[in-house]
Structures are given as structure tokens and as C-alpha cells.
Amino acid sequence: MTDIAKNLESIQSVLGPSVTLVAVSKTKPASDIREAYEAGHRDFGENKIQEMTEKSDELPSDIQWHMIGHVQTNKIKYMAPFVHLIHGCDREKVLKIADKEGRKNDRKLKVLLQVHIAEESTKFGFSAEELREFIESKRWEGYEFIEIKGLMGMATNTDDKAQVEREFKMLKALYDEVKSVLGDSIDTLSMGMSGDYAIAINAGSNMVRIGSAIFGARNYPA
Ligand SMILES: *Cc1c(COP(=O)(O)O)cnc(C)c1O
After folding, report:
1. CB of residue 212 inside a 6 A radius of ligand 1
2. Domain for residue 222, yes or no?
3. How far apart are CA 173 and CA 166, in angstroms?
4. How many angstroms separate the CA atoms of 179 and 61, rounded?
5. Among 28, 193, 205, 219, which residue has the most ligand 1 atoms within 8 Å of its CB, making it the best to mutate?
6. Which of 14, 79, 119, 120 is the most buried (most CB within 10 A)?
7. The whole model's pTM is what?
8. What is the pLDDT of residues 192-216, one digit of tens each?
């Protein structure tokens, strides 16, 4: 068994069957994805549209591609034909353009609403207030070609586990609120990365996005 296959197996055994593992392959070569694919894995996450499109062109078509990065609205058209789930819908403009591109492709695009739960001001997302306003407004009913599946969030990058836990619990509470309005179509709570997924699943996550714990540290070009 390769290292990648071993890492996948040990993480999956911690997660159990009810949590979806998105293997975050950003910056990693297609050969690494193929290794995971051959071990049976199908869900992969990328944060750059061009990289995701290039990889999807050369890899098997039954891979489910997750866009986990910040979404530029002018790039949505490139992923609309094939993306499985867009995690980073962090403002209404993204929903509006995703709806338009979904219509052009005659497919409903599955999306998560990204919520800003961290202390850092650099992380994108709806605030809790903006999210509640959007849900209560029922404007989401007007978007025929998107399917809102749930919420996504990133905790503060800190060693303070209690803080991370508080942030994840806050997102879980918002998820329950949204589900009480939109109903059973809401079934995905994407939270947890290599460093904090254990805390996330304890707080109620059912989808984790894990990169370095599967593929090793990323080498960004200097
Ligand atoms: C890179 C990234 C991850 C994975 O990070 P790791 O710490 O390598 O597990 C998860 N979510 C998002 C949004 C990312 O950009």
C-alpha cells in the first residue's frame, strides 16, 4: 500500500462512514490523485479553477471535484459543466452567477454557503447576521439552478482548541437553523482540516477537507 492510501485509510477509520472525506489535492500532481483514486477515493478538493480544470481533463471522469477556494465570479463558467460541490459561496453575487451558469449548462449546481467563523479578518464568508438575513429573505427561492446543500467554515488557525471548538459549534448551530428553514435538502456541514478535523467531527461536521495529512506538506513555489 502506498503512503497516500495508508493515510486515507487511517483518516477514514477515525471519521467513520457518515463523514465524507474530501482529499485536498491543491498543488499536488495528478499522479498523487491517481494513487488515491486507485485506493478507491473519489472526492477531491482544489482551490484554483485552472488547476482543477486541468486535472479533471486528465483524470477519470467519475471523480467528484470540490471547489474549496475563494470563488471569483468570472471563473464560475469554467467549473459549471463538471464541478460536484462549490464550498466557497461567500456572498450573494456568487449564488447569482452560479445560478446563471447552471442554467446555461442545464444542471443544478450544488453549493455550500461559506460562513465567517474565525477571528482572522482574512477569511471569507457570510457573517451570521448576513446569513440569517439571506435565509429569512427567501431570496434563495429565486435561484432555480443552484441547490444549497449546507454550510462551510474555517476555524481560526490557533493552538487554542477551546476557541476552535467554540467556532465549530457556532457553525453547527447556524447549520441547524438553516436546516430548520430549508429542510432536508440541507445535509452537508463542511468543516475540519488536517489540524482540526477531530474537533470538527465532535462538533457535528459531516464533511472534512483534508490535504497535508493525506498528501504531505505542500510546496508552494517561491
Ligand atoms: C488547503 C485547504 C484545506 C486543507 O488544508 P490542510 O491543512 O492541508 O488539511 C482545507 N480547506 C480549505 C478551504 C483549504 O484551502
Report:
1. yes
2. no
3. 11
4. 31
5. 193
6. 79
7. 0.96
8. 999 999 999 999 999 999 999 999 9
